[in-house]
Amino acid sequence: MDSSRIGRRIAFWRQRRGFTQTEFGRLMGQTKRWVQDLEGGKRQQDPRLSVLVRAAEVLRIPLEQLLSDRPSGPTAGSTPPTGAVGVVDALYESPDSTDPPTLTVLRQRLFYCCEAFQACHYSALARELPALVVGASKAARNAPVHQYSEAQAVLSRVYQLVTSYLHKYGEATAIPAALAADRALAAAERSGDPVQIGAASRRVAKSLVYQQRPETAVEFATSAARRLADGLADRGTLGLSTLGMLHLSAALAASSQERTTDRVRAAVGFVDEADDVADRQGSELNEDWTMFGPTNVGLHRVDVLIRFEDGWSALEAADDLDRASLAAMTRERRAGYHIAVARASLLTRRRADAVEELLKADKLAPEEIEGRPDAVNLVKDVVGATPDPGGQLRALARRCGLPA
Q: What pLDDT score was predicted for residue 165?
């Protein structure tokens, strides 16, 4: 048994759970120096099994996580729900010979689906999207010349919504999400509408991040912003919202890389550019379902700081948000705020605050917490960092498919 590798694994999980060496030692009934020796592989040549069993209990992980670097199997929330599979299947479905729905009907269905997305009603969205994808594809294929551009714009917006929905389930749906994003951009280019081109471009940028290509994502988003800036400015608040969201997409892509001074500076700079656009736009607006404005920019600033693991600065940025404006945001954005504050609280070892924020997010939007891999993993980390999880947190963990 390689005691040094076991020690490194214990250190990794201790830090992930937010325990200091002193706190972990107290839970183990030992001193800080004992923990230092254990993590450094100096405690003894072969740590006793009883010690490892107790460490696994304290860290709330399977014992095999300390004995091997191999993953113990899929985690809860690591596979998409059944509804998402139906949406993916619709991307590959061949249109039949029946008449396509009218563009008016498609826009009505699209409006309903966008509202469902912003309300975090993803199960309802999963029921509606497959037919919407097939119907929009058929309408675009059969559109007369005078409706061609409009039909392509509607098709692009449908694919954009599919991309955003599939991105909710992380790596499990990253490939079909990338396909939908590429189709969205192709349809947007055919429509000639700079708003749809810009909106589709930010979906492509996010897909590039999921493909482990964040540098390419930054370049793609910034290039799109430069190329489309004049055309978007001519479209008033709708165009400005699109432009601002492109800058925020670049910021999130930049903060998806390992932290360096240059990357932090670049990511913050992109957020500042979005802030300038928000000032030009004025108040908070839900143009093209973006909820773009000063508050959304502030929420992205918090997210960027968390991605760079600067929990204290993230909490300060969260405190600067206007409470009334935050309360007026969509359910999805408000739930995202509570999740972000929970992450920042965990980074700063404010465990009680992390629990409180998670419970608020779950009460507000259960589907944003209980079915998404990132959120489920956060719940797992908060449970693991909490020496005595209360009944509400344990119940949340069980709803996420986690042991509690």
A: 97
Closest CA to 138 of 204, 130, 194, 198: 130
Reported as a single tens digit per residue, the pLDDT across 298-318 is: 999 999 999 999 999 999 999
User: Residue 33 carries which side chain, given as an amino acid letter?
Assistant: R
CATH 1.10.260.40-classified regions of the chain: 3-67
Mean pLDDT of the chain: 91
In whole angstroms, how far apart are CA 17 and each of 50, 57, 119, 346? 21, 12, 31, 8
- Residue 292: strand pairing partners: 285
Query: Residues 26, 27, 29, 35: what is their CA dihedral angle, to the nearest 10 degrees?
Result: -70
Residue reference for tokens 């370049």: 219
Interatomic CA distance for residues 149 and 134, integer angstroms? 18
Q: What is the pTM of this model?
A: 0.82
Q: Is 192 left (phi over 0), alpha (psi -120 to 50) or beta?
A: left
Q: At what angle do helices 331-347 and 373-385 cross, to 10 degrees?
A: 40
Q: pLDDT tens digits, residue range 170-202? A: 888 999 999 999 999 999 999 999 999 999 999
Q: Are 209 and 252 in contact (CB under 8 A)?
A: yes
Domain at 3-67, CATH from 1.10.3720.10, 1.10.260.40, 3.40.50.150, 1.10.287.130: 1.10.260.40
